[in-house]
Amino acid sequence: MDYLKTVVPSQLTAERGPNLVVINPGSANIRIGLATHDTPFNIPHCIARYTSQVPKKNVQDQMLNSQITTVQHMEREKAYDIIASLLKIPFLDEEVANNSFPRKMGRVDGYNPHNSKKETAFTWTDVYEQEPNSSLPLGSSINEGVANESLDQHEGSSSNELISSKPKFRQFIFGEEALRISPTESYCLRRPIRRGHLNISQHYPMQQVFEDLHAIWDWILIEKLHIPLNQRNMYSAILVVPETFDNREIKEMLTLVLRDLRFSSAVVHQEGLAAVFGNGLSTACVVNIGAQVTSVICVEDGVALPTTEKTLPFGGEDISRCLLWTQRHHQTWPQIRTDILTKPIDLLMLNRLKETYCEIKEGELDAVTVVHSYEDGLPAGSHKTRLTALNVPPMGLFYPLLLVPDVYPPPPRSWFHDYEDMLEDTWHLDFPRRSDISDGLYPGMNVGLPMWDNYPVFTARPKKEEKVGIAEAITSSILSTGRIDLQRKLFCSIQLIGGVGLTSGLVPAVEERVLHAIPSNEAIDTVEVLQSRTNPIFVSWKGGVILGILDFGRDAWIHREDWIRNGIHIGNGRKYKDSYFLQAQAMCYINS
């Protein structure tokens, strides 16, 4: 304890960080890096496997609802008109008379002041293995057609040199490269996590999901972090998992990290809790707007309140899809075949357009830009166009009927049923507060540790999705705490994390709509969204770093041998617990 009071944070990081790998898996991306890194690698969470047979479809996934029903279409149009009235723009099918009212335009010269990326097109991935210093047989540099003809003539009897000259396909392709593979190539793209859960279905078997996760993570560890398998026993892993994960999903992640990836030990932290630490806070309402799912959870004095958890089935990718629908409806999208389901490279383009041009502000918001078309195997085509109603898609966060989600048949829920909760519900326990520690009532490192001996077991909390916008979800989450003093503090400590949190105009929009969503009989009149001290995309990962370095006693860590031999029951028979209590301890050290 005395050491923690006197040590310089940078020294603590230098001492403990080099052997800590922080892993924050998400549906669309995985953030992973050493604790000594300023920022992690942020890599698309997908893998493309080569198949010798032409696949029926180049994306192996659950059945997608690409056809919107009539009811959904009507609801979407109604939501658009509600948003249009708020933003003071024409309704969806309203014909605007020329010069009938002044137009508030974005810059129309193709330049956007906050666009740090040039409007360059994505390129198709080279799917062939690179063989340096390789040469064609017979000292020739003849074209491929002649080489193939020669190969056919000698098939079955010629030397192996000719066979070796034939380009070899890469067996596995990961990350963004996997998303940029042409649909004409014999590859099958897979995403092992979808909408905040393992992407298990009759189309994507459980064993294949785990094999793909192992392949992706192993590739990152070797190629990006340069940690080969035979050295991982010198490293420990910090898993920062989404709140959406069920008990068995967390266990499978631990098995992957300890048994398959061969880390010596591991610990689990939740994204929302880690985000609080990443921003140096103790109490906050954390709103995590990811690519495919949004979650809300409240944290008080470093302890999560699981009864406040809300999960919303939409995220940044849904805003990108809505952007495409909006432009097509207004006939501003070029006459090109843009299909994010069969051509993931189109989703990359839409995500970039969304990040560059979409914002929340009143008045018409248009911009001239270049849209690219990606036809099978051909170079990208450029199409200059004027995009309109760019402030509508992000408003879908408040009116989710605008964001018609793809429907994924859920895996059998019995698969997730688990009587041993990896994220034990500890909010009934009486944790020591900072004032008690400062008064000397709980001195030293063993704050409250005797509680482990009689740790109560509660039923696992349900993982249900809410069908509301983020303003209603935030309000409902905070009001469910039931204490007016805590509610007032939380309404003034809202924290937006995730890539969508960077959207211009989102903060004042959240503050205004949350304030309007609070019932009039509640004595609350102030709402504030706190500015993130670090990049909202990486704040949960950064919090995992802080928790891993501060965890001096490592009471909640699981060792590889114990996990493989005994599973969840380790050591003296005490069940492994999530880091609710551990994080409360660390917060005590920070604020003491």
UniProtKB/TrEMBL annotation:
InterPro entries: Actin, ATPase_NBD
SUPFAM superfamilies: Actin-like ATPase domain
Membership in a protein family: Belongs to the actin family. ARP8 subfamily.
Protein name per the record: Actin-related protein 9
Organism: Quercus rubra (Northern red oak)
